[in-house]
Amino acid sequence: AQTVTQSQPEMSVQEAETVTLSCTYDTSESNYYLFWYKQPPSRQMILVIRQEAYKQQNATENRFSVNFQKAAKSFSLKISDSQLGDTAMYFCAFTPTSGTYKYIFGTGTRLKVLA
Amino acid sequence: EAGVVQSPRYKIIEKKQPVAFWCNPISGHNTLYWYLQNLGQGPELLIRYENEEAVDDSQLPKDRFSAERLKGVDSTLKIQPAELGDSAVYLCASRPGPAGNTGELFFGEGSRLTVL
Q1: pLDDT tens per residue, range B11-25
Q2: In the CATH scheme, what is the code of domain A3-114?
């Protein structure tokens, strides 16, 4: 079975500081995507960053970067220079690229950025 | 470009009443998903459509839930009769076909159901 585990239900960080959210996953697939989604209090989920499993280079998007460890099945999100607008639920997600595109989400990490 | 549109945003009903949620995906997106999101949890798949075909409905409680996507565009999710435990947010998401597929799922704002 494919699973996604986020072991940090809640985290907080001071504005302008750096925070890392953890995610581990389990799959027997060799080709897949990993994602971090952000869900602000308004509820609409938006994509933060995406990683293709066949790429060794870690994805980056401005202040957001990932540490992708394929052998360890780990996919952490680092937010640099945290801003108040980063306060949200963050979900790690996985989908195989084999055609089923069945997205599996973790239980989320609630991040609060403190002024 | 319009995003994924869902309605209603909020719905409060008495238990045993029916309820329906509507979703219009991004234009040209062949794949449509309905997810259930309980408070403080991640989304859980209810059903996935490829055009008008339901290709994965294994987690849809078919005794009370039904869904349709008749013309392969918009979709309706129905619950009849609703139970207290159905209180949750129902999310719709869509994804383009193979040509434009980056793997990203695009979500609507969700429909929050409260069953009293």
Answers
A1: 999 999 999 999 999
A2: 2.60.40.10
